[in-house]
Specification:
Elements lengths: L7 E7 L5 H14 L4 H22 L7 E8 L3 E8 L16 H6 L8 H8 L2 E7 L2 E9 L2
Helix pairs in contact: 1-2, 2-4
């Protein structure tokens, strides 16, 4: 029998938009069961959704049979979520630091993309990008508050 770390859930989804909802359901349920407020559950779910969509669209470039591996671990202060894809490029650490221009976006003159990483940074307590062998990993840390 393979031993599994307590308080850890691992989910593998294909790179098909819509499957991230399975991850959101698990992350939200885990957060509720470990004492998160409704507001923090929403923050977590939004950040995890953005991380999964980025993995599907950018990391795996929409290749449907390329897996997205998500690991959710309870810590003493909250949850840690790692989203792994098969991205070929190194992720710079400063992604998502600059706030996109909402007025330009509404007017249709600004970039249509670029909100996901910014939102993740605003909603979680820690965000880290790293390369792990041939994979890209985004680590989200969110505290119960």
């Amino acid at each position: 029998m393979k031993k599994w770390p307590q308080e850890t859930v691992q989910i593998t989804i294909p790179s098909i938009l819509g499957y991230e909802k399975i991850v959101l359901s698990a992350a939200g349920e885990m957060a509720r069961n470990t004492g998160f407020t409704a507001e923090r559950v929403e923050d977590l779910c939004t950040a995890v959704q953005e991380a999964c969509i980025n993995a599907i669209e950018h990391g795996n470039r929409g290749i449907k049979n390329a897996a997205v591996l998500v690991t959710i671990t309870e810590t003493s202060t909250g949850l840690q979520i790692e989203v792994q894809d098969y991205g070929r490029e190194h992720l710079p650490t400063g992604l998502g630091l600059k706030q996109p221009n909402l007025e330009e976006r509404i007017a249709g003159t600004g970039k249509k993309r670029g909100w996901g990483l910014y939102l993740m940074r605003q909603l979680v307590d820690g965000l880290e990008f790293r390369k792990a062998g041939r994979y890209n990993v985004i680590r989200l840390v969110i505290k119960r508050s």
